[in-house]
Every structure is written in structure tokens, then in C-alpha cells.
Amino acid sequence: FATRYISDTTINMQVIPISCLTDNYAYIINDDSSKIVGVIDPSESSPIISFLKKNNLKLNYILNTHHHYDHIGGNIELKKKYNAKVIGFKGDSHRIPGIDIILENNEEWTFGNSTVKVLHIPGHTLGHICFFFQKEKIAFTGDTLFSLGCGRIFEGDHKQMLTSLNKIKKLPKSTKIYCGHEYTYKNAEFCMKYDNNNINLKKHFEKIKKLRSNGLPTIPSNLEDELKSNIFLRCDQNDLKIKLNMKNQEDFKVFKKIR
Ligand code: ZN
Ligand code: FE
């Protein structure tokens, strides 16, 4: 596969998506002001190492959203090579390889000059978390919220997953969403099946088609666009309920029907 390097500069934080495996993204976060470098969900070590080498960077932290192999596969090698610290959720400390710093729900952790809030968002797995960089308004949502989709429910149940999505929905609208996989095109097709009158979705899909045909990532998305076009975030919306013939039904039932 080809590894692409696209950077995105926010306040003082660079977020660089690194393609891993077939459709995973790891993200290198580089805080220019403090020279602290981290990586989110390294499924493998080699693309991370080659990026760091090329840019003359070292690695301080490895952050994991959950324990699946396609998110933690590079932990041990990276930890050894750079003497980096592994950050993960307390409830998953038994299955995050090499974990050093154990965080709890709602805990705030400092990365360089940034404050990172941990949100426990179970459903895909029971110990899934989101890392929210408060000042920068950047959320790493792993396999819980995808652009135009949501993760499969492996360990939790639908109620948990919907509650977790609702937690993410409460973040500031301008929050940039960095998720674990490039599934957006397929997700858009799925959304269109149920929600083809949604003008915002159609617009979003056109943007995605263009990006993908140029071989570019569709990530980051932002919460405002997701709220308007991701059906899994629209289970409380009357127009979608009517479209599904589920007028006056609970949001949870709508969610269960489509997920
Ligand atoms: Zn996963
Ligand atoms: Fe995954």
C-alpha cells in the first residue's frame, strides 16, 4: 500500500494521518510549541517509524482508543524503540499492550500544551474511549464514530452505543473528527439507502467522491457536518423517522433498526 502524508495545522498541533494495514489510520500528533509527539492507534509500527525518521522526530506517547489489534499492533515495538509511554483506559488496562498511564472516564491528561479529556464511549468494545483535545477541538473517535458511520457493536449493546454517540454529539460543533478507518465512501452509500432526501448528505457524498477519486483521505470530518449527514447521529430527527416509517418511535428503536 502507499502511505500518504497529509498534514493539517490547527492552533499549534499538527495531526498527520498515516495509512496503516488496508484501511486503518494512525495519527501522529506533533505539538510544535512543546516538541511533544504522540501517535494514536498505531496498528503497525513501520509506517510510523518511517514518518518519524523522515521528519527527524521522536515519539513520546502512544494513545489507544481501544484494544483491537488494528489499533494497538505497533505498541510494543514503538514503545521499545522510542521509550514512549502507552496511554489507555483503566477498564482496558489488562488488554492494552505495554500500558503505562491509565486514565479514567472524564479524566484530563496533559499532552504538551494541550489538555486532553478522556470520554468513555462503550459499545464497539466495553473499554472504548475518545481523546478530546479541548483547546484544539480535536476528537479521536476510534471505531465508535466514523465519518458517516458508526462502529459495529461487538461487546456492548445498542443502548450503550447510542449513549456514547450522544456523548460525542455534545462536543462543540466545530470539533474535528479523526476516526480509525477510511470507511467513509461505503458509509455514505449506506446512509443514502435510508436518507436519500437529505441534501446535506448528498453534498457530503459529492465531496467524498472527489477526495477518494484523488486518492485523498476523507478525514478529518467535523461534527457539524456529521450531525447533518450521518444517519447514526440523526436517530432523533423527525424527518428520518418519517422516512423510515417510524414516526413517534424512540430514538433507540430507530438506531437499532439501522445498525
Ligand atoms: Zn475496533
Ligand atoms: Fe478498527
Protein architecture, described:
By secondary structure, this protein is α/β, with parallel strands linked by helices. The protein contains 9 helices and 15 strands. The protein has helices at 46-54, 69-72, 75-82, 158-169, 184-194, 199-213, 223-229, 238-243, 251-258, and strands at residues 8-9, 13-20, 24-31, 36-40, 61-63, 85-89, 99-103, 108-111, 114-120, 129-133, 138-142, 145-146, 149-150, 176-179, 221-222. The chain has a 7-stranded mixed beta sheet with strand order 1-2-3-4-5-6-7, covered by helices on one side. Strands 8-9-10-11-14-15 form a 6-stranded mixed beta sheet. Helix 5 (184-194) runs antiparallel to helix 6 (199-213). The longest helix has 15 residues, at 199-213. It is globular. The model has no long low-confidence stretch (mean pLDDT 95). The structure holds zinc ion and fe (iii) ion (FE). Zinc ion (ZN) binds next to loops.
